[in-house]
Amino acid sequence: MNGVIKVRFWVSLAITVLVISFSWAQRICQSPDSLYVDSTGIARSLHLFVYVPPNTDEFTLAIFDQADDEPVGQPSSFSLFAPNGSEVMKLNNPQSKAWSEYKVTADGRWGIWRLTVVGPQPPQGQKLAVRNCFLVRTIGNVDLFIKLEPAVLLRGVRFSEPKFGGEPIHRFTVQVPELTRIRFNFVRPREEQTVEVELQPPEGVTAEQNWGGLSRGSLEFLEINGSNLKGLWGLRIRNVKGVYGLGIEQELRVFFNNEPLMPMPQTIHVTTFIVDENTPVPIRLDITSPQTATETYVTFTDRNGFGTLFLLPDISYRVTASRGFEFEPQTVTASAEQKTLSVSIRRVLRRPYGWYCGDPHVHTVYSDGNDTPAQIVEAARGEGLDWVVITDHGVGPAINHVLMAHQEALPFSEPGKFIVIPGEEFTTPNYHVNIINGTVKEISATPLQQVIEVVFKMDTEENPVTVKINHPHWTGTPKTPELIRQLEKLPLIELWNDGTVDGQKLTILLWWELLNKGMKVFATTATDSHTRKAARLGSRRTYVFLGDTPLSAASVVRALREGRSFLSRGALLLFTANNSLPGYTVSKSPTTIKVWVQSIRPVDKVEIVHNGKVIYTFAVEGKTEFTGEINIAVDNGWLLAQAFGKDDPIPLAMTNPIFVHITN
Question: For residue 330, what are the contacts with CB-CB under 8 A and spacing of at least 6?
Fold first, then answer.
C-alpha cells in the first residue's frame, strides 16, 4: 500500500512540474472569475479583444464552461473576428465544466482581434432571464483585454462573483496613455464592504482620487486627476459578491495580465478648422486601421478645435473628420510617429442668419445611455449643434440621476455660443414625453393630459418650459396614439423617431390630424441617441429661428413652443407665406408662398401641404439648391412645406405650419 502511495505522490509531482513548465513556456492570460452574458439586454453582449503582435504566428483561445448554464431557446454565440473586421470562425464546440479550446493561426494578421459573445435567449414562452457564466483565456504570445465603454447602468460590461472556485478578487491592468483625467464608472451591490475598489498608480505617478455620483446600487464614479497619468495602473476589485458593472469614460484598454505586450499608445496632437474660413471648430474624428478595425475609436476635438489621438506605433491609420451634415467629411492618414495632425473640413450648407440647430432628445450614462454628460456635450459641439437637451429617463420624485446628469452637463453652456438645456424623458408604460427645460414629479400612473397641464403651469415667460410627446408609433408604447387623440392640448410632437418607416409616416399623419382638429401642435425631430458613436447626435435635428435674440435655453424653448422651426435629415428648408415664418398666422388669400432649400442630397421635389393635402409641388429635379415662389388661393387652416429626395418616403426636411385665418 505504501508503494502505491509513493507512486501516486511522484506522479502528482511530475504532473505539477509539467504544468509549471508549460506555464513558463507559454504565456497565459485569463479573465477573472467570472464573465457572463444574459438575455436581459443589460449584459446581452460582450466584446473581448486579443492583441496579436507582428511576430506571433498562432495562439489558443479557450473558454471554460462555454455551454449555457440552463436550458435555452437560443444558445449563446461566440464569434472571432480578425483585425480587419472579417469573421474568422464561430466557436461552436461548447463544453460544460471544461475548457473549449480553439487553435487560431494568425497568417500575418497582426493587430487587435475581437471575440464577440452574444447571450442566450430563454425557451419559447418563457420570460425569465437566462445567462451564461464563463472564463476566457489565451495561450501564446498575445494579450487578452477588454475595452470598457463608459456605460454601466442598462448597458456595458458586468462581472459576477466567482462561479468556478476562484478568489473573490478581480485583478486588472489599465493601460493609460498621456492623460490628465480618468473617470471610472461603477454600479456596485448596495451591500457595504463588497466590491471594494483599489487603484494602484504606476511608480512615479502622483494623482488625486475622488469618488462622486450617486449611492451604491446606482451610478458611482471614481475620478483620477494628475499632471500626467501615463502608465500601467493596477485595478483590484476585492470582496466580489453578486454582480457589478464597470465602465471607463476614456474607453481605456483593461488587460487580464500584469505586463501587456501591446506597446503604449503614442500621443498625437490634433487641430481642426473650417477650410477657407480659417475658423477653429470642434469636430468628430473616426479612427481606424487594418490592424484595429475591430475596435471602435471615436473622439472629438474641443470647443477650440484642439484634441489628442492615441495611436499604436507602426500602424497607418485613417482619420475621418466630420461635423454633421452641414459639412463635407474629409479623410486623412496618420501615424503615431508624426506627433501632430491638422485636419480641415469644408462647409457645404450655408445656414441663413438667425437659425440655430439642436437635438432635443438624448440620453447619458445616468439612464440607459452609453456616454457621460460631458461626452454628450462634446459630441453635440463636434456634430455642429448649437444646443442640446439632456433627457434621461425618469418618473416620479426619484429623479436624482436625472438631476445629476444636469449638474454635470450645464456648466458647459456658453450663452450665445452653445447651450445645454435640462430635461427629462418622463417614462411610463403607456407613453414617453420629454420635459424641456425642467422636470416633473408626477407618478407613472398620471394621465398624459395631466402631465401636460403640470408643464403648462410651470411655464413662464422668464423660465419657459414645454413638453413633447415622443415616438408615438414606437412599439414599446402602443397606446400612445390613442392617448394623443384624446388630448385637448399638446405643445410638441416628435417626428421620424418611431422605429420603422411606416411608423414615421403614421406619426406625420397623426400630427396633421391634430392640426385639422384645430390644435396648435408643433413638430420637432431628434436622434433619441443612446450612444454618440453609432447614433450620431444631430443626424436628425431641429432648427429654431431666433433672429437677433441671443442663443439661450429660454430663447430656444420659446421658439420650439411657438413653432418657429423646421425639421431636417440633411437639408435646410425655409418657407414663408406672405413673408411670415412658420408658427405665425396669415389673413390674406391668395397667399404668396416662397421656399428655399439647400441639401446634401439631390432634392426631387418640394411639396406645399394645406390642411393635410398637397396643393402644389415644386419640381426640383435633382438639384441641391432651389428657390421657388407661387401665389395660391387657400382656405382657413394651415400650410407647411416638405422636401423629398427621390424614392425616399420620409422628407429630407419639413417645416412647422403657418396658420391661415382669412378675415373679411
Answer: 320, 321, 322, 343, 344, 345, 346
